[in-house]
């Protein structure tokens, strides 16, 4: 087998292993660029968070970015889903992006505002709700293993630097 053939087979296997609920494209925050979650995940564990730019928990962006920096080289994929389901997201997407990227230095993937609870929830959060329950507020954190199964669901009060969250992250790496 050639190196190209092996690489192609590896990609096909990764695509086949991607759970259906991640096989979706969504627009990145304040961008025309789309992100496909299967391509983003590539068989790696993910930390998925519903976020808002005007919430008492918004300061968690700093800790989420630190978590991203600490564990990305070990395979963790961090993804934030902006949402106004709890009425605390900026009305202007440019302002929401400024909060994330400028105020908190976020470099992990942020998705344009969408619903994260109820009948209108995006496909990712529909599945997260089936597996672990809908978010009850902003900054719920869902730790998903490489197969797409929710390992643990952390509420808003769990800080990104908490021992429980970091131990759970380390358990899936």
Write the layout of secondary structure elements.
Blueprint: H1 3-17, E1 25-27, E2 34-36, H2 37-41, E3 46-51, H3 60-71, E4 77-82, H4 93-103, E5 109-111, H5 123-132, E6 141-144, E7 150-154, H6 163-172
Parallel strand pairs: 3-4, 4-5
Antiparallel strand pairs: 1-2, 3-6, 6-7
Descriptive notes:
- The structure is a single chain.
- The protein is α/β, with parallel strands linked by helices and 173 residues long.
- It is built from six helices and seven strands.
- The chain has a five-stranded mixed beta sheet, sandwiched between helices.
- The longest helix has 15 residues, at 3-17.
- The mean pLDDT is 93.
Largest sheet: 5 strands, mixed
What is the tally of beta strands?
7
SSE-based structural type: alpha/beta
Rounded to the nearest angstrom, the distance between the terminal CA atoms is: 30 Å
What is the count of DSSP helices, taking H or I runs of 4+ residues? 6
Which key terms come to mind for this protein?
17% strand, 36% helix, 173 residues, alpha/beta, two-stranded antiparallel ribbon
In a few lines, what is going on in this structure?
The protein is α/β, with parallel strands linked by helices.
């Amino acid at each position: 087998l050639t190196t190209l053939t092996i690489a192609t087979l590896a990609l096909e296997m990764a695509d086949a292993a991607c759970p259906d609920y991640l096989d979706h494209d969504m627009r990145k925050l304040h961008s025309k660029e789309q992100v496909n979650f299967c391509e983003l995940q590539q068989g790696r564990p993910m930390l998925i968070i519903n976020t808002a730019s005007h919430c008492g928990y918004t300061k968690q962006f700093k800790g989420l970015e630190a978590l991203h920096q600490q564990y990305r080289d070990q395979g963790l994929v961090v993804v934030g889903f902006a949402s106004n389901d709890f009425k605390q997201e900026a009305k202007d997407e440019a302002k929401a992006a400024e909060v994330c990227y400028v105020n908190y230095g976020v470099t992990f993937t942020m998705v344009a505002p969408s619903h994260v609870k109820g009948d209108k929830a995006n496909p990712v959060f529909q599945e997260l709700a089936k597996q672990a329950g809908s978010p009850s507020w902003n900054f719920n954190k869902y730790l998903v293993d490489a197969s797409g199964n929710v390992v643990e669901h952390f509420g808003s009060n769990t800080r990104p630097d908490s021992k429980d969250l970091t131990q759970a992250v380390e358990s899936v790496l």
